[in-house]
Amino acid sequence: MPAGRDGIRITGHVTTMDKSMLGGHCELELTDVRVDPQDVLGAVDEGFHYAQVRLGPARLTHVMRWLGAAQRAHESAVAYVSERSAFGGPLARHGMVELMIADNELDLAATRSLLLTACRVLDAGGSGREETSLAKVFGAEAVHRVADRAVQMCGGAGVSADLPIARIAREIRPFRIYDGPSEVHRMSLARRAVRRYGRRTPGTSG
User: Which pTM was predicted?
Assistant: First the structure.
């Protein structure tokens, strides 16, 4: 539908903590807007179905994007602590920093594994609803942890513009909300698990 159609008005831009989405986020006001037949994409009344079809692949592209960003934050932090000395040696050799580095490696590897599993299901023609939810929820929270640890490892430099880490951490955080909040995905995952493993009430049939 043409953006200049009567009844469509942009009432404002929503300022959010992330800045990577081209054009940002807008508030629209729709007043007596008519959608003409030539403006309909696909079949009438199938819009929700089309939206659901694209959700799985879209979630995975987000996992890919922010997994790459988290990897960069991690690499930047490891490079920094390898060169920065404190308490008689490189920060990277101190136990607490080593723990954060190792936990980042674990989160990155696990996210990558879930992502590849979901991609294989979609490539094989499956719906991948459960696999994409698993990758999205775990990935969104894992890359957030990775970026947060990267900030912590670098201290003052981690929250400054001297390194890319602070910007990456700010961009990654909304992913736990975009394309379905983690809580909604958890609800769906739990319900699928109950259907799969739950015991039937004694005396019921079917």
Answer: 0.82
State which amino acid sits at residue 111: T
CA 168 vs. chain centroid, Å, equals 13
In whole angstroms, what is the distance from residue 126 CA to residue 135 CA?
15
Spatial neighbors of 182 by CB under 8 A, at least 6 apart, are 137, 140, 141, 176
Give dist(CA 112, CA 135) in Å, integer. 9
- 180 by Cβ neighbours in 10 Å (0-12 / 13-18 / 19+) ranks as middle
The tokens for 86 are 């404190």
171 neighbors 149 (Cβ within 8 angstroms) = no
pLDDT of amino acid 148: 97
Non-local (6+) Cβ contacts of 28 within 8 A are 8, 9, 10, 11
- pLDDT class of 204 with cuts at 50, 70, 90: low
Looking up tokens 């942890």 gives 145
